[in-house]
Design a protein that fits this description.
With 398 residues, the protein is of the alpha+beta class. It has two domains: 165 residues, FAD/NAD(P)-binding domain, CATH 3.50.50.60; 199 residues, D-Amino Acid Oxidase, Chain A, domain 2 (2-Layer Sandwich). The protein is built from 14 helices and 20 strands. Strands 3, 4, 5, 6, 12, 13, 14, 15, 16, 17 and 18 form an eleven-stranded mixed beta sheet that branches. A six-stranded mixed beta sheet has the order 7-2-1-11-20-19. Helix 11 packs antiparallel against helix 12. The longest helix has 28 residues. Bound molecules: flavin-adenine dinucleotide (FAD). Flavin-adenine dinucleotide binds next to helix 1, strand 3, helix 10 and helix 11.
């Protein structure tokens, strides 16, 4: 008797969804991806994809495609607002970490993983916004979409991001994302300086901690060519997003914050072509990541505020880890597999979330004395910390 493959419905075709689909397809599952947007997303800023995330992309068979549209990060430079280099953290070390860290636009990363899923014959359905899930005993689990259509499967994975409707549908009591009190406007400017630019050129990512706020920048390849991608993080009331809407207003606010910081920060702000204003939200710890035959992964389960630069990498690790457990499940119920997934993944994601919250505190406004102390600590602790990062950057799922 032939056993029909298990049917996986993946809600969310962002970063984690298509990568999970690639692994599950390889392991013999019948997979479909459902995405709310009407087509592949060209939106989003630039992200740093750390070695641990790149190790997952290598296992998924897309690392070369990702390297072709990204810039290899050689090291992370920690500077003060006057342009003084405080410490340098080597971002790539093949022997310790495996793949190099890269800088990439979220849109380019998304495009690579979605294209690969489609090449592998995985249906990616667009304009399918999940609104509800029906999970009744002895029946297939059913996803209901906004357009009135439905899909039936054996289990559902919510890879639908920080505002997950899968989460809302199966655990309406779960805490909602909360504003962290920090805005993170970011944008793209023409490449500045004499940077040698190319898809695989080696570049520094600059992390600049000021007395009031933070500024970071790195070079990326966008669909319009090489650009410098930058972002600023500072305390701001949430309603400032509603009050400051135009590019000119945002630019003015950013120049008020960083206009007297060292080169090239004022220039990057003055020449900005695009500016997006992003409020940073955190998802308080969820009581659980799964309910019956539905499980959450990536930002839907544990949004990692961007300060650790690990959101996409954690989502990718989740995808590979879950696929591996499902492959090895040998008839174990989905409920049980999902409980094991949470039990084994949570300690790591909790640790990374704690790290991100710690980094966030360094971006808060501080007194002149506290700022001086912070700079001394950066000089001492960044080189020390960079020596013990295997647990984070060298992580590989066997
Ligand atoms: C300002 C900022 C900077 C960041 N910087 C970094 C960084 O440097 N490094 C890093 O690793 N991470 C960074 N991140 C985080 C990173 O972008 C996310 O962690 C990552 O994209 C999570 O992947 P995901 O697949 O879980 O969710 P997403 O990539 O958000 O994908 C979710 C998908 O689900 C779709 N969707 C939503 N609702 C529904 C629905 N009801 N039905 C169907 N589809 C739906 C969405 O359209 C989307 O395509 C940053 C985030 C922010 C906000």
């Amino acid at each position: 008797m032939t056993v029909s493959p298990k049917r996986a419905l993946i809600i969310g075709g962002g970063i984690a969804g298509p990568v999970l689909a690639l692994f599950l397809k390889r392991y013999g599952f019948d997979v479909q991806v459902f995405e709310a947007l009407s087509g592949p997303s060209g939106t989003g800023g630039g992200i740093g994809l750390a070695s641990n995330g790149m190790n997952v992309l290598a296992a998924a068979g897309v690392v070369e495609q990702v390297r072709d549209v990204s810039v290899t990060a050689d090291d992370w430079a920690f500077e003060n607002q006057h342009g003084k280099l405080l410490a340098c953290w080597p971002a790539r070390d093949p022997a310790r970490y495996g793949q190099p860290s890269v800088m990439i636009t979220r849109a380019a990363l998304h495009r690579v993983v979605v294209d690969r899923a489609e090449e592998q014959g995985i249906p990616v359905h667009y304009s399918k916004r999940l609104v509800r899930i029906d999970d009744r005993p002895s029946r297939p689990i059913v996803a209901h979409f906004e357009d009135g259509s439905t899909a039936e499967g054996d289990f559902i994975v919510g890879a639908d991001g920080i505002r997950s409707l899968v989460r809302q549908s199966v655990m309406p009591e779960a805490p909602k994302p909360v504003y962290t009190g920090m805005m993170s406007p970011g944008g793209f400017s023409p490449c500045i300086g004499d940077v040698s630019y190319g898809a695989r050129s080696n570049q520094q990512t600059h992390f600049i901690f000021g007395q009031k706020g933070f500024f970071g920048y790195f070079n990326v390849v966008t669909s319009e060519g090489p650009r410098t991608c930058w972002w600023s993080t500072a305390s701001a009331p949430l309603d400032s997003k509603e009050r400051i809407t135009t590019k000119a207003e945002l630019q003015q606010r950013l120049l008020a914050l960083h206009g007297d910081w060292a080169h090239p920060i004022p220039q990057l702000l003055q020449s900005a072509e695009v500016i997006l204003n992003v409020p940073i939200h955190d998802v308080p710890d969820l009581p659980h990541w799964s309910v019956n035959r539905t499980v959450l992964i990536g930002d839907a389960a544990h949004a990692v505020a961007p300060h650790s630069g690990q959101g996409a990498s954690m989502a990718l690790e989740d995808a590979m880890f879950l696929a591996k457990l499902l492959r090895e499940s040998n008839g174990t119920s989905f409920e049980k597999v999902f409980a094991i997934f949470e039990q084994q993944r949570r300690p790591r994601t909790d640790k990374v979330i704690a790290l991100g919250r710690r980094y966030a505190r360094q971006k808060e406004n501080m007194s002149a004395l506290a700022y001086w102390v912070q700079q001394q600590m950066t000089r001492v602790f960044v080189p020390l910390e960079s020596k013990k990062q295997e647990w984070l950057l060298g992580y590989k799922i066997e």
